[in-house]
Fold this protein.
Amino acid sequence: MTLSFSAAVLLGIVVFVLVKGGYVRAGSALACTLFGFTLAATGLAPALSSGLASFAGLLSSF
């Protein structure tokens, strides 16, 4: 649970910086956010969570 919260906070900061810097408009950021929530409600969500956990494990081994 801590990993997903940390990833959500990190990605939220990245999106905020991109919107603030003018690289991504608010509409695009909203569309990506809604896509993420929609994707989380599909059957692909467990595979994505597993992939993120594996990636975090890989990073923590360094």
